[in-house]
Design brief:
Elements lengths: L1 E4 L4 H11 L5 E4 L16 H16 L3 E10 L19 H8 L9 E11 L5 E12 L15 E3 L2 E2 L5 H7 L1 H16 L1
Parallel strand pairs: 1-2, 1-3
Antiparallel strand pairs: 3-4, 4-5, 5-6, 6-7
Helix pairs in contact: 4-5
């Protein structure tokens, strides 16, 4: 079975391939499959944006497609940055913007979560969605050298995501949890 991943991000392609190839699924990037497009993420939820990306590639190729959308939701910021996580500030300044907005927010109000939604459109054009979340807190400073994005300010059990090894992070992360649900869903459909 072949699935097209609605991205050209090499890290996402590797991650999906590592998880799906052992169950007999070959993952191709959208570009490898002949869909060199960029869908406008106009949804107001992670689920909507994942669907928009998957549908754009499915409409072009009429083959099974999977897409994901993910981000950080901070409770004290009314869910910001949310679906705008990747566009919240210039690259390299996103963590600083969150930390600046969180100045003076006490420990008990620093709750946050990472969210990942995966949309799979099957060969018949039917969408299927799963969601993974990881609850944590926003720290007071950036810590750690691993990870990317908001990982240095997102803390779980006293450590930032950027202080965890890849295996430790994947075991508890939003994307790891969503991929686990996705793999189970695909297994049931085969």
């Amino acid at each position: 079975m072949k699935i097209i991943l609605a991205t050209n991000n090499a890290n996402k392609l590797r991650e999906f391939s590592e998880i799906l190839s052992p169950i007999g699924i070959e993952v191709l990037s959208q570009k490898e499959a002949g869909a060199d497009i960029e869908a406008d993420e106009t949804g107001s939820t992670f689920e909507e944006n994942a669907y928009i990306k998957a549908k754009a590639v499915y409409d072009l190729l009429k083959m099974p497609v999977v897409a994901d959308d993910s981000g950080l939701e901070v409770d004290a910021l009314n869910g910001e940055p949310g679906v705008y996580s990747a566009r919240y500030a210039e690259p390299g300044h996103r963590c600083a913007k969150v930390l600046d907005k969180m100045k003076g927010v006490p420990d008990d109000r620093r709750t946050a979560r990472f969210v990942c939604c995966i949309c799979y459109i099957d060969e018949k054009g039917e969408p299927h969605t799963v969601r993974g979340e990881c609850e944590g807190r926003i720290g007071y400073e950036k810590r750690g050298e691993n990870g990317f994005g908001y990982d240095p300010i997102f803390y779980v059990d006293g450590r930032s995501f950027a202080e965890l090894s890849a295996d430790e992070k994947n075991a508890i992360s939003h994307r790891g949890r969503a991929l686990e649900k996705f793999t189970a869903m695909i297994g049931e459909m085969k």
